[in-house]
């Protein structure tokens, strides 16, 4: 067996398929782009959907990639099995309507067995095939596989719903008898069975059918190849590792964790080994996820990251690591993956900062969770029960990040078990909620070839002209079919040349008209998108007949276009200004460029202050006032990167790219339209800034005339305010407002003083009315106060004077009712808890509440029930055993 590192294996795979005419696709961001059906990129083919469903035609139908992916559907198995991971790399080769079974099988065998490549022993390889797939069996034998190494399996048919599907062939590597965990006669002891000896390393899917919406299967217009080889598994074979974790992909993180622990070592205790593996795995997943722009939160992708961090921290506690440590593994992950993912080390400081912040927060939460667990154990013992309630165990898991295994281990020493069935029931409820919240449309989409074969050349000339004469109709679609012409209605049309910009990169499409030779309007342009082969596809609303071969004048709405390109140039200025203010980790997360405003989403960990926004806005306006020329150069990607151009990680760029430069301030890859000079923007004004998700912020802004209108409206509002305040100059408004605020503060304090005096007078009467109930002294009363704060002040006075065992006060504040309950130290020792009492009496005011054993409060919507609440308090105390 060759001695190869993970980096060498990855590169060898890609180099092999490059030698077979494949284009190497870079590993895409883990955050899906324009695909709401996926939470994460979870496979290599997930990034190829647009090619397989026919919405985009790739420049080369042969593609290969090593795609980082995340799956968390069986997170509980991570660390417990040899090959479960949250983040993994999927090596793949893809054919989009080009080669098929014979080439895919022949090349797979060559890569695996050739001395120039993997050089694996052919006798150790086995293939499973779909029983009805005679071609696959034939091609494997022709490649050199012995018939007894080809196994038929009914489940070798890849189908995830509507869209491409077909038989597949799995490749297994025989790791030898030393890995055998089953008896010789066990029915699972074969390649493809549930065993440790035969390791699945590759799956080749032969997509040849369309799974139709009605459930039928029809031959695909274009047959495809989709393969997946798990890098981690292949590395374990090359490095003769017992599991994936004993490879150079994971051992550096494991050894670093050993250094953080209190003397714990890997391979010394099977239980501790699980914790080492969990930490190594999760450190990779969170590092890459945060690096790609996701941040910890309570929902979606952010919740996955939060859960992974918490799980790793809890396992760190098992290894004796009590402080933050996970963030220290970020640069270790970066070093391991540096050869193919250099951006991880480049962002290591930022990623580590995010991880440490989350670790610190959870370590505080973890302490609270342990306190709750101790309380649960104490209550369970007091009640004489031997089992922790399943719902409470789930609360520990869901709120505090305690896996049920940890709760079980913790309570075992106390002779108490956990209601596992109750826990599972609560877990299922959560899973059902999550499943219902996900999109039902998880399939790839039915493949269509309507426009795949339409390759008529179409030139976009809108960068330099907005009015084109003699533009010829080359292709037309109406009612879902290619047609030669249409009399009316909505059609889609390709012209041999066009000035209409097709929506792309957040910039909306141009609007305008299609004119006949006599100047009459033949159609209005409702939308422009890109056809699968890249032509601008115009959606037209016909007012006159149109046919293929006809020529027309195409005229863009110049005013609409001008406003859009002003806002587009402003997004470039804004993007760079944000980087200047917040740092290089800030990335564009989306944009929308309309004629009347722009919207810009960006990643940022933390809040954005008014001072920050003022700096950003000032920078943009400074560049506008400097009257900087905006220039565009068409070049290749490599040259563009050398120029310093910023590329969006989620965008794909062709061989030729446009580099838009605003002096030396901003340089970006961009196919959109722009002004010639920043002075055309006139003015830039941010109108709003909000958070739209975990670590993602949104700015909306206006330029030019819309910025003037915005400022004019605010100026009018200020003038109106000055008039209302009777100040002759608007400059005096802040001083006048401050003066009024001081007056209000003075009056409020005076009012509070009077109310406190009145409350004190009421308290003297109420505190004198002490009831003796069940051996305890109780004071109750409904008082007239203006806030819950004053009720708390009365409770403080009561406690200082030690007037009774229990105090219950109520008050109507506005339309609502408030209650407060206080218990003395003696009452608490006797088992009387303010929180229990407040829960008993708050229903009388149609409310609820809670608090500590010595003080609790409640609010409700029924002030008329306050006296009933007082009576209920006396009744509760009298019934107390």
UniProtKB/TrEMBL annotation:
Catalytic activity field: tRNA(Ala) + L-alanine + ATP = L-alanyl-tRNA(Ala) + AMP + diphosphate
EC number: 6.1.1.7
Protein name per Swiss-Prot or TrEMBL: Alanine--tRNA ligase
Binding site for Zn(2+): 568, 572, 670, 674
Coiled coil: 730-764
Database matches in SMART domains: tRNA_SAD (SM00863)
Pfam families, alphabetized: DHHA1, tRNA-synt_2c, tRNA_SAD
Cofactor binding, per record: Binds 1 zinc ion per subunit.
Domain topic, free-text comment: Consists of three domains; the N-terminal catalytic domain, the editing domain and the C-terminal C-Ala domain. The editing domain removes incorrectly charged amino acids, while the C-Ala domain, along with tRNA(Ala), serves as a bridge to cooperatively bring together the editing and aminoacylation centers thus stimulating deacylation of misacylated tRNAs.
Physiological role: Catalyzes the attachment of alanine to tRNA(Ala) in a two-step reaction: alanine is first activated by ATP to form Ala-AMP and then transferred to the acceptor end of tRNA(Ala). Also edits incorrectly charged Ser-tRNA(Ala) and Gly-tRNA(Ala) via its editing domain.
Cofactor: Zn(2+)
Keyword Protein biosynthesis applies: yes
Enzyme class of the recorded protein, top EC level: ligase
Species of the source: Secundilactobacillus paracollinoides
Matches recorded under InterPro entries: aa-tRNA-synth_II/BPL/LPL, Ala-tRNA-lgiase_IIc, Ala-tRNA-ligase_IIc_anticod-bd, Ala-tRNA-synth_IIc_core, Ala-tRNA-synth_IIc_N, Ala-tRNA_ligase, Ala_tRNA_ligase_euk/bac, DHHA1_dom
Molecular-function GO terms, alphabetical: alanine-tRNA ligase activity; aminoacyl-tRNA deacylase activity; ATP binding; catalytic activity, acting on a protein; transferase activity; tRNA binding; zinc ion binding
Gene Ontology biological-process annotations: alanyl-tRNA aminoacylation
Superkingdom of source: Bacteria
Location of the Alanyl-transfer RNA synthetases family profile domain: 4-713
Family: Belongs to the class-II aminoacyl-tRNA synthetase family.
Keywords tagged on the record: Aminoacyl-tRNA synthetase, ATP-binding, Coiled coil, Cytoplasm, Ligase, Metal-binding, Nucleotide-binding, Protein biosynthesis, RNA-binding, tRNA-binding, Zinc
Location of this chain's protein in the cell: Cytoplasm
UniProt keyword annotation of Lipoprotein present: no
Cellular-component GO terms for this entry: cytosol
């Amino acid at each position: 067996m060759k001695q190869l590192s993970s980096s060498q294996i990855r590169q060898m795979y890609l180099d092999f398929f490059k030698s077979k005419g494949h284009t190497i696709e870079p590993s895409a961001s883990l955050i899906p782009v324009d695909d709401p059906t996926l939470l994460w990129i979870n496979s290599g083919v997930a990034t190829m959907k647009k090619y397989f469903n026919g919405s985009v035609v790739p420049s080369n139908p042969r593609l290969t990639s090593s795609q980082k992916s995340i799956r968390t559907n069986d997170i509980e198995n991570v660390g417990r099995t040899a090959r479960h991971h949250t983040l993994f790399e999927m090596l793949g080769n893809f054919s989009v309507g080009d080669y098929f079974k014979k080439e895919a099988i022949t090349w797979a065998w060559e890569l695996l067995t050739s001395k120039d490549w993997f050089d694996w022993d052919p006798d150790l390889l086995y293939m499973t095939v779909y029983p009805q797939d005679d071609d696959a069996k034939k091609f494997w034998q022709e490649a050199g596989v012995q018939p007894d190494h080809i196994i038929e399996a009914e489940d070798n048919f890849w189908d995830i719903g509507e869209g491409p599907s077909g038989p597949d062939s799995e490749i297994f590597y025989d790791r030898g008898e030393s890995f055998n965990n089953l008896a010789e006669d066990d029915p699972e002891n074969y390649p493809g069975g549930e065993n440790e000896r035969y390791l699945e390393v590759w799956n080749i899917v032969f997509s040849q059918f369309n799974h139709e919406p009605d459930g039928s299967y029809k031959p695909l217009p274009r047959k495809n190849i989709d393969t997946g080889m798990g890098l981690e598994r292949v590395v374990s074979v090359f490095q003769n590792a017992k599991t994936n974790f004993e490879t150079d992909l994971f051992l550096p993180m494991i050894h670093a964790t050993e250094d953080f622990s209190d003397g714990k070592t890997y391979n010394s205790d099977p239980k501790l080994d699980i914790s080492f593996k969990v930490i190594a795995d999760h450190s990779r997943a969170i590092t890459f996820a945060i690096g790609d722009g996701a941040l910890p939160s309570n929902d979606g992708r952010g919740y996955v990251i939060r859960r992974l961090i918490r799980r790793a921290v809890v396992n760190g506690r098992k290894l004796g690591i009590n402080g933050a440590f996970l963030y220290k593994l970020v640069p270790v992950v970066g070093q391991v993956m540096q050869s193919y993912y250099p951006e991880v080390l480049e962002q290591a400081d930022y990623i580590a900062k995010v991880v440490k912040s989350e670790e610190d927060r959870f370590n505080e939460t973890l302490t609270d969770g342990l306190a709750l667990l101790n309380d649960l154990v104490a209550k369970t013992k007091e009640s004489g029960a031997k089992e922790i309630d399943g719902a409470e165990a789930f609360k520990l898991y869901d709120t505090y990040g305690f896996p049920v295994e940890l709760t079980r281990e913790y309570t075992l020493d106390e002779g108490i078990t956990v209601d596992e069935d109750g826990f599972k029931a609560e877990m299922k409820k959560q899973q059902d909620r999550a499943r219902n919240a996900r999109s039902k449309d998880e399939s790839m989409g039915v493949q269509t070839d309507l426009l795949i074969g339409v390759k008529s050349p179409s030139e976009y000339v809108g960068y330099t002209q907005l009015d084109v004469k003699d533009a010829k109709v080359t292709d037309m679609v109406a009612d879902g079919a290619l047609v030669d012409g249409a009399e009316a209605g909505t059609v889609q049309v390709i012209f041999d040349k066009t000035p209409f910009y097709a929506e792309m990169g957040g910039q909306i499409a141009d609007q305008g008209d299609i004119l006949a030779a006599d100047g009459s309007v033949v159609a209005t342009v409702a939308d422009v998108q890109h056809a699968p082969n890249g032509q601008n596809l115009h959606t037209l609303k016909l007012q006159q007949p149109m046919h293929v071969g006809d020529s027309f004048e195409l005229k863009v709405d110049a005013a609409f276009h001008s406003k859009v390109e002003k806002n587009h140039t402003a997004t470039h200025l804004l993007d760079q200004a944000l980087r200047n203010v917040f740092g290089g980790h800030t990335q564009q997360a989306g944009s929308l460029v309309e004629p009347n405003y722009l919207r810009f989403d960006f990643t940022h960990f933390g809040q954005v202050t008014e001072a920050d926004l003022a700096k950003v806005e000032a920078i943009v306006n400074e560049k506008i006032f400097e009257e900087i020329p905006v220039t565009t150069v068409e070049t290749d990607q490599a040259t563009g990167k050398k120029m310093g151009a910023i590329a969006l990680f989620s965008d794909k760029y062709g061989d030729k790219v446009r580099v838009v430069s605003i002096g030396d301030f901003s340089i970006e890859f961009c196919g959109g339209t722009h002004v010639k000079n920043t002075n055309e923007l006139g003015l830039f004004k941010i109108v709003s800034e909000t958070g739209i998700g975990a670590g993602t912020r949104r700015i909306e802004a206006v330029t030019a005339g819309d910025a003037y209108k915005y400022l004019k409206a605010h100026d009018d509002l200020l003038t109106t305010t000055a008039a209302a305040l009777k100040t002759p100059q608007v400059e005096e408004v802040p001083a006048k407002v401050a003066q009024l605020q001081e007056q209000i503060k003075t009056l409020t304090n005076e009012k509070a003083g009077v109310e406190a005096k009145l409350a004190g007078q009421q308290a003297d009467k109420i505190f004198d009315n002490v009831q003796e109930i069940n051996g305890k002294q109780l004071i109750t009363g409904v008082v007239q106060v203006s806030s819950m704060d004053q009720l708390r002040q009365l409770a403080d006075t009561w406690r200082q004077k030690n007037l009774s065992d229990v105090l219950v006060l109520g008050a109507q504040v506005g339309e609502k009712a408030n209650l407060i309950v206080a218990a003395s130290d003696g009452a608490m020792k006797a088992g009387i808890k303010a929180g229990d009492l407040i829960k008993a009496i708050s229903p009388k005011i149609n409310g609820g509440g809670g608090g500590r054993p010595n003080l609790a409060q409640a609010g409700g919507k029924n002030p008329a029930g306050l006296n009933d609440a007082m009576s209920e308090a006396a009744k509760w105390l009298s019934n107390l055993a």
